[in-house]
Amino acid sequence: MNPVLPANMVDAPLPPALPQGVLRLHDWGVIRASGADAASFLHGQLTQDVLHLDEAHARLAGYCSAKGRLLASFVMWRRGPEEILLACSADLLPVVLKRLSMFVLRAKCKLADASAEWPLWGLAGDAAGAAPAGGWARSTSGAADLLRLPDAVVDGRAVPRALQAGGAAPAGSTLEADAWRWLEVHSGVARITAATVEQFVPQMVNLELVGGVNFQKGCYPGQEVVARSQYRGTLKRRGTLVEAAVALQPAQEVFHSADPDQPAGMVVLAGAWAGRHAALVELKLAALDGGSLHAGAADGPLLTPAALPYAMPAEAP
Tens digit of pLDDT for each residue in 266-297? Predict the structure, then answer.
């Protein structure tokens, strides 16, 4: 797969080797939903169809405020008829768990922090070889669950990625946390952290393009706003991959040279490998028509747009 770069994007030189290995994901956590109504409860709260989630696949989902802004993003999977696990950023897990619990009411669903019981590992490259083939596929290996994540596509080279939940530490060389985040960025799949809570409608970070929004499933908090953005052509911002010569951070503002007084976007997730920095940035579409992008201020470090591993839809003018 070799995405075609728009005319104003540059295919920057990359290191000859790409990251691979194993990393304990201390910045991720797990929420367990259990009980006869676990699936129906989550179905009414998340952007994804939970009722038809089978045990052979994981799915991506968002959790929105009433205004349609993302409070969290999840990788979720089913472990039997009455148990669903949801992996998310650890720094927002307690608040999200408390908020979800407020709406359980009489539903037969118990929510709990299962992070200690289900430690998460990121596997990249050869280390992900045991993961099942196919998008978001799930398999079991002893006491562990293996979830196939979208590949990170860099310069036409695809790096397989997987998430292991539970079980013994997987075999493989040690992968640096920043390198794993660099691969996350290059997969084009956004992960909401505490720094970016309520900053984005799902489409602003391309969540529906990577399978995180189901538009036929019915109501959930913020559903009207999300649907309106999708069908009325009101979306003017999207997730964009950028490269830089300096480290970037989630929630860092991005500026455009033609409009130095107000930010044109915000960093969603960032990482680095072999001295190269990359970020997924929520950005005004108009900022890609010309001029230059900069981190932190209009005269800040230059950001170079790069290709995402999937096609972007044509937005209404």
Answer: 999 999 999 999 999 999 999 999 999 999 99
SS (H, E, C) 173-202: CECCHHHHHHHHHHHCCCCCCHHHCCCCCH
% of the chain beyond a pLDDT of 90 = 86
Say how far apart CA 42 and CA 304 lie, in whole Å.
39
Structure-block tokens of residue 184: 């996350």
User: Domain limits at 179?
Assistant: 21-187
Q: How many domains, in total, are found in the chain?
A: 1
**What would the pLDDT profile of 91-129 be if each residue is shown by its tens digit?**
999 999 999 999 999 999 999 999 999 999 999 999 999
Backbone angles phi, psi at 126, to 5 degrees: -60, -30
Give the closest residue to 266 by CA, choosing from 201, 196, 206, 203.
Answer: 196
Give the single-character DSSP code of 249. Answer: -
Q: Which of 81, 45, 84, 92 is nearest to 64 (CA)?
A: 45
Edge to edge, the sheet with strand 144-154 lists: 21-24, 120-124, 157-165, 144-154, 138-141
Is residue 242 domain-resident?
no
User: Residue 124 corresponds to which amino acid?
Assistant: A
